[in-house]
């Protein structure tokens, strides 16, 4: 038996059961070991299911399994309960950051507008004892802007001797983990070095916001609400995300489905509340998203920026052309019959396999590829758009897509808060602090991929 996405003949996480959908790594959480149930004790422990896992190469190690078990609601409630019991000097400030692809899930599930869903979610979390609830869109702004600059730089530096292209996106932790652990060279040098929105949000909360509130980073317990399970693994692998004292940027990741389960089980009185901002603004800001059908839209933003910077071409609406399937699409910029830019979006591992094979053979026609592990993009993350038996809830997903499409799009360049942060937090757009806070390096070279690694 093996994971449906696994590249190996046998999955190292296999169990004795023949039920692939229910086989999992089952590791007791610290809350279990301590005999503490706390609130919502009927919630399931955090597990990595074979049908959920998108990260290949020995899947999840025993040590990672133990750490993933800590990425659950029980330990979240453990912090909440300790705040209620212990001296105020020992309290931790709880901050929750919600991914923009999670909000349409709550809206669709509870039949609300996305604004009302965000207010109910925020009110629920604060009724539990959470102090701040943020939107991670601003972190995605930084990730996209840094990716734009890096692509333009790579395009200008590219040559046959030292190829800098294609550039492959680095926002999806399932894809990045697979690239690092399984593929190695020649893929990892093509990964964009811009950190993911989750990693950048960790820096914003544990560094910028902590200093603004005169708090030590370890006094903040930072939770991410995300649409997929791979974000839990990403939180474990984060490097030093803050500028001081080495605090991990994200302490816990809960999927949208886990939060919804908590909301359904709760009988606490909820007063709706607006999302907070990192700047302490009182005025409620309008929800916004980036230009992607089910994700943050790296392709569209980088395509427009590159067309303008490199060829002085203004691109309005980006036109996608489906190739092998709806999850493998192409966008081109042409002038006088010549293709100036050729971009692609590859979602799901079967399309990723096609990209990797062409790249290895040196027959790769693209300058840039937006790579996402989940077919259909982040809205279809396995932490939210699933039925009880682990299949995609197509009706719910269709509702989510419609809700997400109705959220106003704002270009990252248009965010005044982002420009202020570049100056106030990072000492300018080209300072050493930008490299430290917004960019990363990848494990390398990694073991080279062989036929076993790339055949499904």
From TrEMBL:
Keywords: Nucleus, Phosphoprotein. InterPro entries: Cytosolic_Fe-S_CAF, Fe_hydrogenase, Fe_hydrogenase_lsu_C, Fe_hydrogenase_ssu. Its main location: nucleus. SMART domains: Fe_hyd_SSU. Transmembrane segments: none annotated. Signal peptide: none annotated. One of its GO terms (cellular component) is nucleoplasm. Residues 1-36 are annotated as: Disordered. The keyword RNA-binding does not apply. One of its GO terms (molecular function) is lamin binding. It comes from the Eukaryota. Residues 390-446 form the Iron hydrogenase small subunit domain. Residues 1-19 have a biased composition (Basic and acidic residues). It is found in: Nucleus. Belongs to the NARF family. Interacts with LMNA and binds to the farnesylated C-terminal domain. This is Nuclear prelamin A recognition factor.
């Amino acid at each position: 038996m093996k994971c449906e996405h696994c590249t190996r003949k046998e999955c190292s996480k296999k169990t004795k059961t023949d039920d692939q959908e229910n086989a999992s790594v089952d590791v007791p959480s610290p809350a279990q070991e301590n005999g503490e149930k706390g609130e919502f004790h009927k919630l399931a422990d955090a597990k990595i299911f074979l049908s959920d896992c998108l990260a290949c190469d020995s899947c999840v190690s025993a040590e990672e399994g133990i750490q993933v078990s800590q990425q659950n609601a029980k330990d979240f409630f453990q912090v909440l309960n300790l705040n209620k019991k212990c001296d105020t000097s020992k309290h931790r400030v709880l901050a929750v950051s919600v991914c923009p692809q999670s909000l349409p899930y709550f809206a669709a599930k509870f039949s609300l507008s996305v604004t009302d869903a965000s207010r109910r979610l925020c009110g629920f979390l604060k009724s539990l004892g959470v102090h701040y609830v943020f939107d991670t869109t601003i972190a995605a702004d930084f990730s996209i802007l840094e990716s734009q600059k890096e692509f333009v730089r790579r395009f200008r530096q590219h040559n046959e001797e030292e190829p800098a292209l294609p550039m492959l996106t680095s926002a999806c932790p399932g894809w990045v983990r697979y690239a690092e652990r399984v593929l190695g060279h020649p893929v990892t040098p093509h990964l964009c070095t811009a950190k993911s929105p989750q990693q950048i949000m960790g820096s914003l909360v544990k560094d910028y916001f902590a200093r603004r509130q005169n708090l030590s980073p370890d006094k903040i317990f930072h939770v991410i609400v995300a649409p997929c399970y791979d974000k839990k693994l990403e939180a474990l692998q984060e490097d030093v995300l803050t500028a001081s004292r080495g605090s991990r940027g994200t302490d816990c990741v809960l999927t949208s489905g886990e939060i919804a389960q908590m909301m359904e089980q709760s009988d606490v009185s909820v007063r709706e509340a607006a999302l907070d901002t990192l700047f302490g603004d009182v005025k409620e800001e309008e929800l916004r998203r980036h230009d992607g059908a089910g994700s943050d839209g790296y392709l569209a933003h980088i395509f427009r920026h590159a067309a303008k910077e490199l060829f002085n071409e203004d691109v309005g609406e980006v036109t996608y052309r489906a190739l092998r399937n709806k999850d493998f699409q192409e966008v081109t910029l042409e002038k006088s019959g010549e293709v100036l830019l050729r971009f692609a979006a590859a979602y799901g591992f079967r399309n990723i396999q096609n990209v990797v094979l062409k790249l290895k053979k040196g027959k790769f026609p693209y300058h840039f590829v937006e790579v996402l592990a989940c077919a259909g993009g982040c809205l279809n993350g396995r932490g939210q758009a699933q039925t009880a038996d682990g299949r995609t809830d197509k009706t719910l997903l269709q509702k989510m897509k419609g809700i997400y499409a109705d959220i106003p799009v704002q270009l990252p360049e248009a965010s005044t808060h982002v420009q202020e942060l570049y100056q106030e937090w990072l000492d300018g757009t080209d300072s050493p602090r930008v490299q430290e806070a917004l960019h990363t390096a990848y494990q390398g070279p990694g073991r080279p991929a062989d036929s076993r690694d790339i055949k499904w």
